[in-house]
Structures are given as structure tokens and as C-alpha cells.
TrEMBL record:
SUPFAM superfamilies: Periplasmic binding protein-like II (SSF53850). PANTHER family: ARABINOSE-BINDING PROTEIN-RELATED (PTHR43649), DIACETYLCHITOBIOSE BINDING PROTEIN DASA (PTHR43649:SF12). Pfam families: SBP_bac_1 (PF01547). This is Sugar ABC transporter substrate-binding protein. It comes from Saccharopolyspora aridisoli.
Amino acid sequence: MPRRSGRSRTRLALLAVVSLLLTSCAGAGAIGSGGRTLVIAIVSNPQMEDAVALKGEFEKENPGITLKFVQLPENQARAKITASTATQGGEFDVAMISNYETPQWAANGWLENLQPYIDKTPGYDANDFIPSIRDSLSHQGSMYAVPFYGESSFLTYRKDLFQQAGLTMPEHPTWQQVADFAAKLDNPVTGVSGICLRGKPGWGESLAPFSTVANTFGARYFDENWNAQITSPEFKAAANFYVNLVREHGEVGASSAGFSECGTHYAQGQAAMWYDATVMAGTNEDPAESKVVGKNGYVAAPVERTAEAGWLYTWSLAMPKVAKDKDAAWRFMSWMTSKRFVKQVGTTFGWNRVPPGVRRSTYEIPEYQRAAAAYAKPTLDGIDKAQQSNTMVNPVPYPGIQFVGIPEFQDLGTRISQQLSAAIAGRITVDEALEQSQEYAESVGESYRETR
């Protein structure tokens, strides 16, 4: 019997396993009491919740279409959406995915080509999208997902705490400077940690910020010949730095803290610094959500051996190929990613709540310019500079900055993050975590060497 390639084995395993996850979802395109019901799977982040709150506006303008949102935490949403899309299950009319999935799923034929819909929609203006964001959601010149918000990563810090301690944050800090600041500002008596860093398992959770640290330390997941590099000196240095920093000066319960947990921790005044997605700024400066409004500075992602270190990411809306009512689905997608929606959010919830990092026109709105004065430029600079050539020391055979752009990374990245999380929790050593991760990575690398 001929031996299957690594990619074929991965795809078959995915299709066999993910079907077990497809429970408890109503079918897409169902007929409701008012007509058509669109089922939309989204991640339960604050900006997405604003879209849910505004659904009545869409339904009022589109009588006969009812929106049903399936909101899930990030890790669960990824698993559910991947399972449904990979098996062409048809559970969702619209699904929230990222620039990690979009090019791969478009190549697999799992997604509807949105370019014809974009081109025939007056005023939608896809040329208004920031080019790097638009390109990251394209396959063979056509967009297969439309961006809801875009982000890089940066460091926020409490200007008042720095001033009280006589410290000055540089515009382009190094990770060693950040570690030194964290040590000086960590205050168990007041309950303020020196820094907040994700430790929650998940390739899109803790592994996102950690990967940028690994990159700037000169590490990489695979060399150009797909040899796993998890136990390389550079990777070990990055892992030890990250784990030690969060263990010594990070938040309580760091091994289970993701973006949402760190966001709450920082907004409640319980951390002096937080390194994460640029989209954090909207929550930090929202009086309804934050106790530190106006007290924050924002600077570039910390570096070690590279000029830049920020990631590039966008949560976007895609239409599964098997969606039953594609015209209605596009009507919703174009509404949620339009210029008009940006203004609806700003006037309804406040301009700090506007989805950032996607449309250039957003940054020309006077109200948004005033609200986002502290973080608009660092956000755009981070997105603009988020390229492998700026953020990595050595060449790699895969696309992506904070992820490895191959299908296997959903599993591989999650496994590695679980090992690092266990090291943060003190259950295993960093060396043990990396040795186990190396084994996982070697099997993936071998499958790619077989198909070269």
C-alpha cells in the first residue's frame, strides 16, 4: 500500500476527528418566524459583542432576515468553526476566521470567493482596507474574507506608575528593559503585577505573544529544510525568558490567563504593563470598562535582535462554500465590515469601541482621531511594519509571524502552548516542555520533507 504524504494524513485525520465536534448547532439558513435566519459564528471578544448588540439595526433595514449569533471563547470558536468548515457541515452561514485560516481554506475550496460580491456592492470600497490586511485575506488576487478588525501587537504601560517610580519607557523598548521595569514595578502589597502576559494554552492564545518573543530572540519553529528547532539555543533562551518573566512578575494564575483575562486584569489597575494585541487599547480607554482611562502609554512591541517584533492579525468574516443563502449572508457581512458600521459603533458605544486597524478612512474621522490619539499611530505603525523581514532573524519556510501558516499548526501550536503553560504553572521545567514540543514538531517537519 502506498504511503500517504504528511499533508494527506493530516487532512484525513482532521476530517475524521472534527466531525465528532459538530453537535448543538442549529443548521444554517434556517427558516424562522420572520423568514430567513442567518447563523453566524463569532469569537466573544468585546468588539464582536458590540456587533451583536447592533443586530437590531441590521434586521430593521433588512426585514425578513433574522441574525442568530453563536458566540464562543476563542479556542472553542476555532475548533467549532474549523470542524464545520472542514467537513462542509453547513452549520454556519457566516464564520469568523483570521488571516491564518483564510488563504489555506480558500485553496482547499472551503470558502466562497467574495470578490464578485465586493465588486458589485456600491460604496463598499475594498480599496479603503489597509493593504497588508487586505492582502492577508486574499488568495490568487481575490478576497475570501473581509476584515472586521485588524491588529499588530504593542506594549501598554501605566504612565502614572512609571512616573511615581522615576522610570521612563522608551518608544522602542527591549525585552530586557521590560523585564527590568517589571521587577521594579511588581508590587504584591498593592496587588499590581509588573506585567501581564498570556499563559493560557492555545495556538492563538499564549503562543501568539510568545512567538513574537521567540522571533526577536532569533528562534524559529522550523529551519528552511523543515527541521524542527524547538530545542535550539535561541528557542530555549526565548522560552526561559518568557516563562521566568511571567512566573516572577506576571499576573496571578498566569497559566490560565488569555487575552480576555489579561484585559480585565490590566483595565482594573492590577498590572503596570501589558504586552498584547493593539486592539486592547479600545478597552483600556473605555470608561465603562476600565479604571485606567487616560493613564496609559503605548509603545512598539519589545525587541531583542530584530528591528520590530509585532504580529499581523485580523478577525474577519468568511462565507462557507455550502452557505445556503449567500446573498443574505453577504448583505450581513458587508454591513458589519462597512464604513457605516464604524460610525454606528462610534456614535452608539463611543469612539474607543470602533473596530480598529482595518479601514484607512476610520483614522480620518475627527471623533476617532481625538479618542484614539494615544494609540492610533502605534497601531498603524505596528501593522505596517509587521513583516517577516522586520521581525525574524533567520529565514523560514512558512508564512506567518505569530503563527506557522500550515494546517498542522492548529494542533502543533496548541500542543506546544500546553507545554509552555505547564512550565509557567511550575508542573514541568522549560527544558522538559521544549523536549516534548520538539517531538511534536519533528513529526510535522518530517511530513513536509517527504512532500518536497
